[in-house]
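User: Structure please.
Assistant: Input sequence and predicted structure:
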Amino acid sequence: MKTLLMSGLIALSVGGVAMAQQAPRGPGAADTDGDSRVSQAEFVTAAMQRFDSGDANRDGTITAEEMRAGMEARRAERRGEMFARMDTNGDGSISRAEFDARPQRGDGDAERGDRRGGHGGRGRGGHGRGGGEMDADGVTRAEAQARAEARFDRMDSNDDGFLTQEDRQGRGDRRRGDQD
């Protein structure tokens, strides 16, 4: 019964995965030329690709409903990835042994840190910083581009026109300094 339930949940998640084909995310995803730094043009282009992938009806505005749908699709994708990691033998179900062998919270901190740390702390409300609340009418493509440019300027701690690992480390140092 539990196997059937888990299989049903994964089937529902897989349906959301098709919708969740989002533009690449994370600090390195925008580095299209592979020089280990992100120019403002690369940063804004990546942000606009994410905007375009979230604009489901292609009207140039992301509404609150489109944003919720995108977030749910990303959650479903993460659930599917988690299921796939736990289903080590790939048979489409998670046995008791596979379940018991899964990494416990804290075992994957390094992986989680690579994915979430150093690029705005999305898990702590990073989406809203500097962008304000979403209007009842949504966010237009022009507004999203202006916000991306402003976000890049805030993140470029040494004002050299590129985001590097040093900029990300500097942001973390500033955040810690602000909290003391």
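The chain has seven helices and four strands.
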